[in-house]
Amino acid sequence: MTRTAARYDALPALSDPLVVPLSTRAYNRQYASLYDYRLRRLKHPKGRLLAKAQAKWAASSSFSAASSQKGSGNSKKREIKEEEEERADALYVKRILDVKQGQVVFVIGTVYVSMQLKPDVLEDLTREQYLPPQPVADRYADPASDEVYVEDESGRVRLVGDAVGAEGRLRSMLITGVVVALLGTETRSGDFEVADAIFAGVPEETEEAKQSKMEVDEVKEDQWVAMVSGLEIDAMPSGSQNQESNLTDSQGDDLNMFGTSEKELRLTMLSEWLQGEVGSPEDREMASKVTSLVIAGNSISMPLRADEEIKSQPRTPIQPGHYPTLTLDNILADVASTMHIHLLPGASDPTSIALPQQPIHFALLPKTNRFDSLHRETNPAWFGVGGKKFMGTSGQNVDDIYKYAIEEDNEARLRCACRTLDWGHVAPTAPDTLACYPLADRDPFLIEDCPDIYFVGNQPMFGSKIYQGSNGRRILVVLLPRFSTTGQLVLVQPHTLQCKIITLGIVS
């Protein structure tokens, strides 16, 4: 098979902040510094959130001139500032607690949602002294009891009004950790009545990036990127094959007459399809156009039970040579000889649990690691293919955000993914309910550039949408389904933002 090559770009300016070397990992810090950095970054006078709020709610030209005089000791400049602020549509108050009743102002702060259903570490530790651990709630949202606050370095104030109520248009956008600009006024009870809100969104495209696209555009319409997630390769216990009496594997999947589960057959078909060895002539032609493969986490299956639960039960020995990492290595080695592979770690993979997850160690993939085409990415990840920017996660961020959402329809997760672009932040719920490193010098989840394709792995079903940013940029948002249960491989054409689904499995 002849396969055209696509240009790969590591995007070091975007991907390097996601790397956390072992020597720099310290858990003796407080997470407050992460929230402070997030707020300062978006609240900065040169930040895009403040600029958007001024452009919409204030007399932008006069207001900018007034705020530029801030901190001057010259009385004339102070008089100019007061005059310009009087002409503004709304005043910008830097400190939330400085808001005065009766003034129409806008403030910038971090959202905090008080939820009774959200897990509480201290409460769980106290309960464990008397009661067994309680199951984790599938959803945190309870419109009847939830209260929304906004806070900054000065303090916290509760948000009220129809816009942030249970049926309000802004309620689904306000979750813990989101930095937002709010327009409103203080009530007699000391609350902040919200009239409107603005979020950071995705950044504007730089002139350098525009010029680069004009000079080099290597993306062709006959080049596709294959995306898959949730391979969930499990260990093959000893004696699982060649025994007619054993009709299920270690994960409970039905075995066929050859003692192979449908999951294993799908993995084999995936490797062979990408190499053009199976399928119709049309499938082989399409496979020849695939230049890169993205594996978005959970390549290794999660153990069925905790060790504490199986101490009293005999464990089935694993057959030598059938460890899940070896199986993954064999599959990737076959594919890496013909195309680039971008491997993201997931929640069940052998790497760090805290976000940003670090690349899977090269020692676990001895065969594939010999190929330069293997790119062990972080989670979240940034990389470039054919001159287009890809940003993606293995799904933990959207899974956690979905617990805050009120909606329960099939499009809810897709909307949650699009909201991360509205917020300008991939994982706002970290570190509140999503584990992450207590970084003090940066927030690696801030979206500092505008991607062309944004993918989220390990979702219950496929979904895609063209996101239209406030800056006019078009971003393809793709939800990747779990391959182990659906057998679906998603093909993306970066140039046209077109999607196709290839389903691999047994035809009954």
Automatic annotation (TrEMBL):
Organism: Acaromyces ingoldii
Domain DNA polymerase delta subunit OB-fold: 30-196
Keyword Electron transport found: no
Compositional bias of kind Polar residues: 238-250
Superkingdom, taxonomy of origin: Eukaryota
InterPro entries: DNA_pol_a/d/e_bsu, DNA_pol_D_N, DNA_pol_delta/II_ssu
Pfam families reported for this sequence: DNA_pol_D_N, DNA_pol_E_B
Gene Ontology terms describing biological process: DNA strand elongation involved in DNA replication
Keywords, alphabetical: DNA replication
Record has Ubl conjugation as a keyword: no
Gene Ontology molecular functions: DNA binding
Region (Disordered): 235-254
Gene Ontology CC: delta DNA polymerase complex
Family: Belongs to the DNA polymerase delta/II small subunit family.
Protein name in UniProt: DNA polymeras-like protein subunit delta-2
Record domain DNA polymerase alpha/delta/epsilon subunit B: where: 261-463
